[in-house]
Design a protein that fits this description.
This protein has 303 residues and is an all-alpha fold. The chain contains seven helices and no strands. The longest helix is centred in the last third of the chain and has 31 residues. It is globular and about 55 Å long.
């Protein structure tokens, strides 16, 4: 069963332990071919018997020889890597723009810190609501995704300015570089086949992520009602450890995002699906950036 949430749902995972979708012949317009070499023979989420969402896509590949890599059609009606890059760039561009504006227009000196911080938290809450609305929609809404990016950018601009100006000078740039390094590293490892994105990998990442989130929620509740740092999972040496775990989980989600993009292209996903790919990538990159920013803040505040 596939969740409608693009954050917690990754299409196209095989039921075996091999490379999902590698060296196979996806057929978006028809049922999967039940051959020994096809890892999707028993578990193709796009095959018609289990409700292929792209089965009626007129732009999907129809004549693909088994064992041959999928060939991009000449039409522009289906998702391509260029569509994903363009929409991801647009989403991240909006996020960076609003982050820069909030950094410049919302000072974090002693006189204005409370107001700026309140605006940042409010923007984060609005962005979270928009993200959940999009996550449970059947189709991508570019307006929702770009609005999420705008509000999330305001929050990131404020929190980055606070850390950079009051805790560790240059922290924001260090976090950006760290996020870019993780992105490039995971992309290279994924393309080289060093990361096996299969059903087992998916289950492990989802279980670890849910456990991590629940633990952080418990820590937050203790901090709200008990004061201080709660259970100490987000501060001190333990905070650094959990920050590193958060970065590793974010890297795993990047691999899932890359697999989702690969499956969407191979199985003839409609062009608007590129917005969901951009949405998932943006969420993951924001997660990794915040974890890096927290680690840098903890390390510098302990000096």
């Amino acid at each position: 069963m596939r969740s409608r949430n693009p954050v917690f749902s990754r299409r196209g995972f095989s039921r075996d332990s091999g490379y999902a979708g590698f060296n196979t012949a996806p057929q978006a317009g028809g049922p999967a071919v039940a051959t020994q070499g096809n890892p999707y023979a028993q578990g193709n989420p796009y095959a018609q018997p289990v409700g292929n969402p792209y089965a009626q896509n007129p732009y999907a590949q129809q004549d693909v020889q088994h064992g041959a890599p999928p060939q991009a059609p000449v039409t522009t009606g289906r998702m391509t890597i260029d569509d994903v890059v363009l929409r991801t760039g647009s989403t991240l561009g909006v996020l960076v723009l609003t982050a820069a504006l909030s950094w410049a227009l919302l000072p974090v000196d002693d006189a204005n810190l409370s107001r700026s911080y309140g605006i940042g938290i409010g923007a984060a809450l609005i962005g979270m609501v928009l993200a959940f609305v999009q996550a449970f929609k059947r189709k991508a809404s570019p307006a929702l995704i770009l609005s999420y990016a705008a509000f999330e950018g305001v929050f990131l601009g404020v929190i980055s300015s606070v850390v950079d100006n009051r805790i560790a000078s240059g922290a924001a740039m260090q976090a950006v570089l760290g996020t870019m390094a993780v992105f490039v590293g995971v992309l290279v490892a994924y393309k080289a086949g060093w990361i096996r994105v299969n059903r087992r990998f998916y289950g492990f990442v989802m279980a670890a992520a849910l456990g991590f989130i629940l633990l952080m929620m418990v820590n937050l509740l203790f901090a709200v009602f008990g004061g201080g740092d709660g259970l100490g999972f987000r501060s001190g040496a333990l905070g650094v450890v959990f920050g590193v775990i958060g970065v590793i989980l974010g890297a795993c989600f990047l691999a899932l995002d890359f697999k989702q993009v690969e499956d969407g292209i191979a199985y003839g996903a409609p062009r608007e699906e590129a917005w969901l790919a951009a949405f998932g990538l943006t969420l993951t990159l924001v997660w990794i950036y915040l974890e890096f920013l927290r680690i840098i803040a903890i390390l510098n505040s302990s000096d």
